[in-house]
Amino acid sequence: MYTQKFYPTIVISDVHLGTEHSKTTELTDFLRTVNCNTLIMNGDIIDGWHLQKGGKGKWKKEHTDFFKVVMKMMENHNTQIIYVRGNHDDFIDHLAPLSFGNLSIVNEYVHQKNGKSYYVVHGDVFDNITSKMVWLAKLGDIGYTFLLWVNRIYNIYRAKKGLGYFSLSQSIKQKVKSAVSYISDYEKELVALARARHADGIICGHIHQPANTHIDGIHYLNSGDWVETMSALLEHEDGSWEVYMHRDGAIQPNVREIQSNVFSIPQTSQEGMKVAFSHYF
Length: 281
Description:
alpha/beta, Purple Acid Phosphatase, chain A, domain 2, 8-stranded mixed β-sheet, 35% helix
């Protein structure tokens, strides 16, 4: 029996259901321990790109179990589900905007609490590679998937040695200058968007980099992902936000990146690293 904790709003993104690297079981376990008024699923929940490929892009029982838990939240707690379109689940373009019962499928959303407004968007439309060069984005997706495979093998080895989980791709993002620059530019673009929409903050995903910080007077929040970081955004009743990291069950009030000092990564071409490692296309 799970002991549930209440949060007015929970935000998840980048689950990538349909891929073998999706941490669906961990996400489902987390959702069973909480309840909320609003669950925002901020894009790339279902990975349509991988499901179209066949092969290892398969729908599994645990993916269905995830949606069963979401439906239970709707049934037991009257939770409002806001499903925001991402680039990997862009097939819902044909549906959005659509609302029925407690479910809304949208391209963007405005979240309001305690007199503050947050503009909610997945974030891919502010990424020139994913929005204008889809073929290049899909090439990067192949490289990123390979990196996740290497990461899984490496963590099996670490587990045998009694060591904790380590995210190789997160380490690369922190150490390669082009990846760091990409993330910084992405944040600035989203902050500028929030300011243009006269919002107090921005809530996004897409780059698999959880964050809770202020940039130029705008509250920047990124829900991370459930492929690498296993993170979510939790809103408290006073309107404050925190980042939840599932690996240790900890709540991190000012997470910007996952710290690591294990690897030293050599320089490579700027565009190549943006495509392959900066985000999950």
